[in-house]
Amino acid sequence: LSICSRTVEPLEYYRRFLKENCRPDGRELGEFRTTTVNIGKCLCSITTADGSALVKLGNTTVICGVKAEVAAPAADSANKGYIVPNVELPSLCAERFRSGPPGEEAQAASQFIADVIENSQMIVKEDLCIANGKLAWVLYCDIICLDYDGNLLDASVFALLAALKNVQLPSVTINEETGLSEVNLKQRNPLIIRKHPVATSFAVFDDTLLIVDPTAEEEDLATGTVTIVTDEEGRLCSVHKPGGSPLTGAKLQDCITRAITRHKEVKKLIDKVIKSLTPE
After folding, report:
1. How many other CB atoms are found less than 10 A from the CB of residue 94?
2. Is 191 within 8 Å of 204 (Cβ atoms)?
3. Model confidence at 57: pLDDT above 80
4. Can you tell me the distance from the alpha carbon of 222 to that of 219, in angstroms, rounded to the nearest whole number?
5. Which residues form the Exoribonuclease phosphorolytic domain (predicted)?
């Protein structure tokens, strides 16, 4: 298979591989790229964060830093804190992205992350309340893509979960006499994470064929994509399908089944890394 045909007719080039149930990078259709996660202060670029993680999915590299601040809760939700996710796709991570305000893809990814947090109930906003009507935690979750080669959503959800599991919040009390908040940095508590959502993305080729964990090239050639988010109980948290080829019920069920299997792999990986960070 010549390189020429890949440049001139990339779709035909891919189809020849797909007929043999494999892909140009040597993976089977249902095979994920090598996935790694680093958690915590080893990430020198964001040592100011209260929690951080770096996830690599093949060449796609995403870093997440969580910064916790205190603020007054909203009047209509006096017992709730805030979670503010933001996805950045800087021009350095791929030629397709430009400098300047967030583009459409970054905005869509930020909204997707916000929906995952809400739908999965990974963090219950009531748990971020410090003093009802007076003080609550705000978690700023900045997800930055350092190297883009497709499947941004899976990497982003994984990095977010890993970074949140790394967060240690200082103890905060309100002084009864002065009414001011007092922070004890020596006494820290981990964030309460209720659910562990994991995203699994698929590209649809020629309206029928599903391939898992698509690269940027595969996403560009696909007739559609779909991302399934599940939690540790196998519960479906969200289905993200931004247009493209429709999926039959059977195909969608196949995606959900594969997503549940993928969840177990990711959870195992994250637990292993966290265990290695915990002193004996």
Report:
1. 16
2. no
3. yes
4. 5
5. 31-170, 197-260
pTM: 0.92
Chain centre to alpha carbon of residue 58: 15
How many residues are listed for the chain in this entry?
Answer: 280
User: In this predicted structure, what is the pLDDT of residue 44?
Assistant: 47
pLDDT at residue 7 tops 90: no
Cα 41 to Cα 50, 70, 163, 268, distances in angstroms: 9, 22, 11, 21
Average pLDDT over residues 28-41: 91
Exposed / middle / buried, residue 215 (Cβ in 10 Å: 0-12, 13-18, 19+): buried
Cα distances (Å, whole numbers) of residue 178 to 153, 172, 239: 45, 14, 49
Tokens of 113: 């992350």
Q: Is the dihedral of CA 216, 218, 224, 226 positive or negative?
A: negative
84 contacts 140 by C-beta, under 8 angstroms: yes
Most distant CA pair in the chain: distance in Å?
A: 78
DSSP 108: H
Residue 172 has a pLDDT of 84
Q: Which residues of 157-166 are buried (b: 16+ CB within 10 A; e: fewer)?
A: bbbbbbbbbb
Query: What domains appear along the chain, each with residue ranges and CATH number?
Result: 27-277 (3.30.230.70)
Q: Are strands 209-212 and 224-230 parallel, antiparallel or unpaired?
A: unpaired
Give the helix ranges, DSSP H, for 2-57.
3-8, 10-19
Residue 96, amino acid: R
User: How big is the chain by its Cα radius of gyration, in Å?
Assistant: 21
